[in-house]
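From the methods appendix. Each design record in this collection lists the tokenized structure first, followed by the designed amino acid sequence. Records were kept in a plain field format so they could be parsed without special tools. The example shown here is representative of the layout used throughout.

RECORD:
FOLD TOKENS (69 positions):
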């Protein structure tokens, strides 16, 4: 009977070890994806700011042209 309990316990430990490894791999993958997304977000924010600056400059030029008419 005790041998059966040890076999069952060993199977449960093996299952937990496999689950732990799978979760570690998934966590590593998610962290890498998060880093990529954070970098992409930074680039998009920078591009948005550049576009906003250009649009504001164009509006200023248009207003200046309108005033000179």
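DESIGN:
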């Amino acid at each position: 009977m005790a041998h059966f309990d040890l076999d069952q316990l060993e199977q449960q430990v093996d299952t937990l070890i496999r689950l732990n490894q799978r979760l570690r791999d998934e966590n590593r993958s998610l962290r890498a994806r998060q880093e990529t997304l954070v970098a992409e977000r930074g680039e998009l924010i920078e591009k948005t700011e550049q576009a906003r600056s250009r649009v504001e400059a164009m509006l200023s030029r248009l207003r200046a042209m309108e005033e000179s008419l």
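APPENDIX NOTE: The mean pLDDT is 95.
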